[in-house]
Amino acid sequence: MHDPATTQFEIADPPTDGITNVTFSPTDSQLLLASSWDSTVRLYNVDENKLTTQVKHAGPILDTCFGKDNNSAYHGGVAKQVTKLDLETSSEQNLGKHDEPVRCVRWSSETNNLYSGSWDKTLRVWDDRSPEALQQTHNLPQKVFSMDLCDNKLVVAMASRQIHVYDIRNINEPWQTRETTLRYMLKSVRCMPNGEGYACSSIEGRVALEFYDMSPEAQAKKYAFKSHRHMINDTEVVYPVNALAFHPVYGTFASGGSDCAVSIWDGVNRKRIRQFPRYPDEIASLAFSHDGKKLAIASSYTFDEGERDHSPDAIFVKTMAETDCKPRTA
Length: 330
Hints:
Layout: E1 8-10, E2 19-24, E3 31-36, E4 40-45, E5 50-56, E6 61-66, E7 72-77, E8 81-86, E9 91-97, E10 102-108, E11 113-118, E12 122-126, E13 134-139, E14 144-150, E15 153-158, E16 162-167, E17 176-179, E18 186-191, E19 197-202, E20 206-211, H1 216-219, E21 223-226, E22 229-232, E23 235-238, E24 241-246, E25 253-257, E26 262-266, E27 271-275, E28 283-288, E29 294-299, E30 314-319, H2 322-325
Antiparallel strand pairs: 1-30, 2-3, 3-4, 4-5, 6-7, 7-8, 8-9, 10-11, 11-12, 12-13, 14-15, 15-16, 16-17, 18-19, 19-20, 20-21, 22-23, 24-25, 25-26, 26-27, 28-29, 29-30
């Protein structure tokens, strides 16, 4: 048995206001990016527990991602700009703007393009190698709340529980338009590593697993389940599920809620594998390293209840044992 007390540590020099995203490098499990309402993008070396790069932007940053290598990143936020960041020199290159805040950015190594989703109800495609970086603008029915990309599938979760799935090799039209089975506002969407579908979560303490294949056999596998609920004085209190992250090796996934809890789920066998002790504040973002050996956990108040006293923003890195995330066959 491993000692849980020694398998988790807190990152030094965390963001100071509302962490919006944490994400590991796709190739290096030492490197972790974080964006926040304090208008910074921060790059950490988690093995050394050291802040290596910090860039302050013109406004709160709502999302960030790595680019084609570990020296390049992108971000977007309240300033409405889509920005490329050189992590070696800390220099920024503004690619262009949305009409409203940029909620999500995702880079594709398949197309070498960046995809941004905004509250202006558009999805935009960018190529920073081109003199005119903006390549395409696609109108959407609703504001973008969350977005994820795996191989050629880009999943866009929007207001009114709407989801568009794009094949980025031919992005002119959505490959699928769907309405999630969840009944309330979506918070997070993440693609399954095996390419079969995605998970999405809502403000009403539920997670749904959905599959691209529309055959009756595949659709029979989809389901939603309750999570992040607690009995308080004989009343069930329901919390938003703010964050999801799939394990890249085992295909299990983590969920994080406004109940300050993180759970690991086996979606195939429909059971919870592990629940970790509660964190100081709400879980705002989760990310596994590319090898699945680390889980980054952003403990940061998400303003569900407006202004209130809350714990300082913190990022924890947890070393994952096989028993924490491997499906249980029994």
